[in-house]
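Students often ask why we bother predicting the structure of a whole assembly rather than each chain alone. The short answer is interfaces. A chain on its own may look different once its partners are present, and contacts between molecules only exist in the joint model. In this exercise we take two input lines together and write out one structure for the complete complex. Read the inputs first and try to guess which parts will touch.
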Amino acid sequence: MRPSVFIRLLVNGEEHALAVPAQRTLLEALRYDLGLTGSKQGCDKGDCGACTVLARERAGEGRGEAILSCITLAQDAQDLAITTIEGLAGPQGLDPVQRAFADCGALQCGFCQPGMMLSARALLDDNPKPTLPQIQEALSGNLCRCTGYTKIYEAVQVAAGLRAPAQRAPVQSERAAPSDSKAQTVKEIVP
Amino acid sequence: MMTLPDLTVLRPGSVAEAVEALRANPGARVLAGGTDIVPNLKYGMYDTRHLVALRGLSSELRYVREHQSGELRLGAMCSIDELGRSELVKARVPALADACRQIAGPQLRRMGTLGGNLCLDTRCVYVNQSHFWRSALGYCLKKDGTVCHVVAGGKRCVAAASNDTAPVLLALDASVKTISPRGERTIALHEFYVADGLHNTVLAPDELLTEVRIPAAAARRRQAFAKLRMRAAIDFPALNLAVALELDGHSVKSVSLAVSALAARPALIKGLQDLHGHAADAIFAEELGRRAHKQCKPLTNIGIDPGWRRDVLPVLVRRTVLRAIG
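Now the answer. The structure tokens for the assembled complex follow.
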């Protein structure tokens, strides 16, 4: 491995000085140098959105825009202020997006969730009352292979205060209709 | 998990420094948004040891300006996302704004740049794969091998130009400004691309694309862009096309049609002059579709049935032309 380069990263408001190989990606630096494993390594080539983090210029305000850390060089991220999923919750507790995702059950395996929630946060920072197509567009760079997205869109609407979480009663198991009772009687087979 | 090869990253602070870095390090490659080159480097597609990262050039090359000649000038470091939202771009070249909004997904549009999209490496289902995958197939013309898996016996790489901004800018007669140690030059976009999948532009290794220039006349032309892809986000085009029309009342004064995601060079459909003076109607749209079908032969370089792509092309052309006519 080549000699390391010294870089400074501003992650979740904290300044870190690191010695990393020149080709280190931001995602690798977050996960393996800083131990912030909330950002996920999915496709690792910029397709799936699991590595999404929020970034803005250091001099800027707010949390910034969603970018992909797996195809950003750590060296090239030194001028940015990065927010990862670990930095989303504030002193008051969970971010409304995180609370809404939990309330709506907007996850199954959870792998896409950090990226999904950060994309949702960036959307709501920019547009506090998005329409459903705007939500779908903003999350179109985050792939989820479990949920079918319905509850994820619902969670973003809940986080935006546009609706309450859907009440989903537990599904009753079907009772056999009386007419079926005969059909269901198993005849004993006499040898 | 795919790691990047050993690299030295140079971070120039100006265009002059960037050109000097390219000159001083033969084989160096340019990193702008990184959305194309980083995955390709992870795939082991380049033997480069040096990357020239252009983030420091943002203040110099990130602008949307109207020149006094009426020409629209776009800095090469403009992000795809900001061009898709720019009021000036939407007003003057709506087809370009439309194309930008259809590139990849939201995160990639924020990272990717206009210059990067125009210089996007060609793509092929047989090469945009891991090193292991390519080695199992015995490699190909584009990288490390001597055979083409798309064209049997082919001697020239036919990996597909997959930039979505290129057909629009081609149809609108745009040009690009470049800077190298030999000075500046302006290249008409129809002379910018060459039919070689290994390196499909006329850019020299130490030459940097700095600006895109769109003639004032573009704003007067009816224009539309269309992209065929499997998913509504993230995917590269299975076909893309742009049409630009100048109308004189209800008749066509001039027309140009560019189709891409075929082979290494975006294709400008030839021989449309005899349609000048034709009524701008459904028959005209149908005829343009017929000509595009005749001149464009999709290949297996994109993993979507080429026969279907060819069949769907005239339909896409007809709809796009009708949309442009309005």
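Check your guess against this: The mean pLDDT of chain B is 97.
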